[in-house]
Design brief:
The protein contains six helices and two strands, in the order αααβαααβ. The chain is mainly alpha-helical.
Length: 156
């Protein structure tokens, strides 16, 4: 086997691996359609006894799969964007009022809720008990679960 043939076989094997990786990234429905198209095309070319230039056909196959994948991703992104646009936005959540029990409003300190925060992490960051945080903000367990980024909580 010559060096050229060895290189062509290596290129062909790499191309097959890439095709498998791309097919693995697609949905099963898409994979079945693509595999069926490829098998049909290969069967037809064998029937006609056409000689296929490995290098050109490999590039064409990879280009076809890439273009199908890119088109699929674009359409999925457009559908997602359209769904997000069509969803009505939730009304803004009002700020939580400070507790009337604590009359030291001048000494009050507030914390703005960030993504990933929950009452426990906020309490630990600010060195207070969770119960104290909930009491200062007139929160019960169900209200505490509905905290969103941007909400303002009293911590002192």
């Amino acid at each position: 086997m010559s060096r050229r043939e060895t290189v062509l076989i290596a290129v062909f094997i790499n191309m097959c691996i890439l095709i498998l990786l791309f097919l693995g990234a697609l949905k099963p429905k898409d994979v079945n359609e693509i595999v069926q198209q490829k098998v049909t095309a290969l069967a037809e070319s064998k029937k006609k006894n056409e000689s296929i230039n490995m290098k050109e056909s490999s590039i064409d196959q990879v280009d076809n799969i890439l273009s199908q994948y890119i088109n699929h991703e674009k359409s999925a992104a457009e559908e997602k964007k359209n769904k997000e646009i069509s969803k009505p936005s939730a009304p803004p959540q009002p700020e939580l009022p400070p507790s009337p029990e604590n009359k030291n409003i001048k000494d009050a300190k507030y914390y703005i809720v960030k993504h990933g925060d929950n009452p426990w992490t906020i309490a630990v960051k600010n060195k207070i008990k969770v119960e104290e945080l909930l009491r200062l903000n007139n929160l019960d367990e169900s209200k505490a679960k509905k905290l969103k980024p941007g909400d303002q909580l009293r911590i002192k």
